[in-house]
Amino acid sequence: MEDILTVSNLCKDYPSFHLQNVSFSVPGGSIVGFVGENGAGKTTTIKLILNEMKRSSGSVKIFGLDNIKDEQKIKEQIGVVFDESYFHGEFKAGDIASILRAVFKTWDDELFDRYLNQFKLPKNKTIKEYSKGMKMKLSIASALAHRPRLLILDEATSGLDPVVRSEILDIFLDFIQDESHSVLFSSHITGDLEKVADYVVFIHEGKIIFDRSKDDLIYRYGVLKCGSNDFQRVDKDDLVRWRKTDFGYEALVTDRDATQRKYAGLVVDPATIDDIMLIYVKGGKS
Questions:
Q1: pLDDT tens, 86-96?
Q2: Cα separation, 246 vs 96, whole angstroms
Q3: Phi, psi at residue 269, to the nearest 5°?
């Protein structure tokens, strides 16, 4: 399976923040969840991928092409949705179609209308009359209607109710059935990623902490929970990170079953993506 997107040693330096040697890939036919706390570097990385800001160093390949030298050719084949709608409030859905029809050679009016009907988006209302959720659905419909090979989503399901989110996640799953299509999906709603992602990339303070298959995280990682006395007898080499709570300690482990066998009697719960992020961000190794 070839990679649709390859990010290699990407760096961006600001006075108070540094994106440091960010590397990961998005294989064809996959959904890659991109997670991290606010300010971790997710949006900066996405903007660098899209060549919307100048990088300090590193490289980005999309469809095997350089994202700067071949920018126009690449962007013909990418759909992008940010957390806010950038369409002018006075426009209607038909105006959006007229503009994007002139931009994308592969624009499909029939497909766009199908998404408008599916998302119950009124064609006779201006965008300023849309709710936040409706604006987001319009952005998603617009991103999909020119039949891109890669979708890049930055909080694209924020502001949507669970029913609509589920519907959109199904659309994303259908989108990748052909192995020449992929999704890079940055989201704070990690439950959505647990449903659809094949891989999870976790960025923290400008550095990639891990790039793992979702199943590996969900089925192998665990959270050991115990009191202070029990924690003292746990070999710290068995733990990734840990944090003190009001009730004792929580520690992240990479092999839940092995930890449970070694420390019989202690609680080792399955780890959610939220658990992993929380212990990394709030915890430590001392």
A1: 788 899 998 99
A2: 53
A3: -85, 155
Same domain, 71 and 170: yes
- Number of CB atoms found within 10 A of residue 181's CB: 21
The amino acid occupying position 46 is I
262-270: average pLDDT: 95
Query: What b-and-e string marks burial along 88-100, b requiring 16 or more CB atoms within 10 Å of the CB?
Result: eeebbbeebbeeb
The residue among 184 and 166 whose pLDDT is bigger is: 184
Per the CB < 8 A criterion, the answer to whether 66 and 8 are in contact is: no
Domain, as residue range, for 12: 3-214
Please tell me the pTM assigned to this model: 0.92
Q: How many structural domains is the chain composed of?
A: 2
On the CB side of 6, CA atoms within 13 Å amount to 10
Above 80 in pLDDT, residue 83? no
> Measured between alpha carbons, how far is residue 170 from residues 117, 177, 249 in Å?
16, 11, 38
Residue 114 sits in the same domain as residue 230: no
* Angstrom distance (rounded) from CA 176 to CA 149: 9
b/e per residue, 249-270, with b = 16+ CB within 10 A? bbbbbbebeebbeebeebebee
Contacts of 233 (CB under 8 A, 6+ apart): none
